[in-house]
Amino acid sequence: MIVAGVGLGAWAGWAGEDTVQVAVVEADLPAGHELTGQDVTTVEAAPAEGLHLLSTEDVTGMVLAQPVPAGTPLVEGALTEEAAWPEPGTSLLAVPVATVPRGLTAGMTVDVIPSAPGGDPAPEVVSGLVHHVTSHDDGFGTGGHVVEVLVPRDRAAALSHSLAGEAAHVALVNRQDALTGEEEAE
User: What are the Cα distances from residue 106, in Å, to 9, 29, 150, 180, 184?
Assistant: First the structure.
């Protein structure tokens, strides 16, 4: 996202258009965080049609409506008087996993695949959006990993039940594939 902010500034300079001051978050911030002047920096950007880019003065004291990664320019829809996250229809589920795909980070789409205990039919796979990845190392190489995943609310309870304390697998999927699968299910 930092690249996006720099890209906006470069485009504005190259295009020769008038620019505006835009607030960009300096670090990953969670939903519900009240913004201060220390949380944002200002970049020059060309106005974008359909986007209401905000200045540092506009955002100070406002609350993030959703998690925002570092380098993201702030727009009107990202702020609120109070956090409304996770979004309606979604749940945040902490999934214990044995191994984490290399490079897995927040914002990626994964399939959560519960382990099927000895001969049981394969449980249902649920796609979701990674919110956070945590690794624990106990010093003996037996540490675990937890992947927090935003999943459809109507599937969260069944997924949690199918995990039943067992480690699941997460498979990194192409976001377009996940969207196509959701459309086919409807």
Answer: 25, 12, 10, 21, 25
Q: Residue 128's closest CA among 183, 162, 175, 67?
A: 175
Reading the chain (186 residues) residue by residue, the pLDDT tens digits are 444 444 555 444 444 568 888 999 999 988 888 899 899 999 998 887 878 888 888 888 888 888 889 999 998 888 887 667 788 899 999 999 988 888 888 888 999 998 866 656 677 899 999 988 888 765 555 567 899 999 999 999 989 888 877 888 899 998 666 555 555 555
- Write down the pTM of the prediction: 0.60
Amino acid, res. 156? A
User: Distance (Å, rounded) from C-alpha 114 to C-alpha 125?
Assistant: 7
Q: Distance (Å, rounded) from C-alpha 79 to C-alpha 52? A: 12
Helix, strand, or coil (residue 172): strand
The two three-digit tokens of residue 26, written as one number: 């300096």
